[in-house]
Amino acid sequence: MLGASFLLGGLRHHVQEYNRISARLQAGLLFLATIALLIPSAVSQADAATAAAFTRKLSVGLVVLLIVAYGLGTLFSLKTHRELFASAEHGEAGEAPWPMGLALATLAAVTVLVALVSEVFVASVQKAAEAFGMTPAFVGFIVVALVGGAAEMASAFSGARKNRLDLSVGIALGSASQIALFVAPVLVLVSYVIGPTPMDLQFWPGAVVMILIAILTAALVTNSGRSAWFVGVLVLMVYLIFAMTLYLLPPQVK
Length: 254
Hints:
75% of the residues lie in helices and 2% in strands. The protein has helices spanning 2-12, 20-42, 48-80, 100-131, 136-148, 150-161, 165-194, 205-221, 229-248; strands spanning 16-17, 226-227. Helix 1 packs antiparallel against helix 9 (229-248), helix 6 packs antiparallel against helix 7 and helix 8 runs antiparallel to helix 9 (229-248).
């Protein structure tokens, strides 16, 4: 999403600017989430039963820390230091803003509809991808992720084309940090209540390495607060390397 936004916006505008402080905050939160994913995968014990219990306890502690970090980050950006996160540019002139009540009601209705459509769409695409012989790793990391984020991608791409790159970068990094620091930790906690088996944060090490590289790439390309179309190409190349690797050499998840 981030790379395609840079590319599409750069093809229409020579150089685009955005608030690099906001991008660095989101990248920092994502790096924190990556550390929380890396630790359970890196720490192992000889006794499988003991290791499993240790990983579950560690994961519960880590997800609580991630939720707290997400809440404090939101407080920092929206309350205590909100002046640092103003848009770098205003973009193209548009229509007059909607009233707050109408905007919130529309957002709530659209969110529910998109969630329902995405659930059906993702399930259908996943079955179709498996029918075409795609591996579960490729389907989970690439196909389902792309389809599930279609609505966010449309908004990010539209913002980039209108020279509102702050919106695009915010959607791309913000949605990722929201999933990594809030949605996934909440799912881990909820799994202890309604799930058949408690979830943890231990992933296949190759997946964690890819996530770490992706976060470092995002932090690198958003550090300057300026972008052009070739920056988008570089980010997309990293993504395509991951996609090709997962398609040709799928990881063996335990």
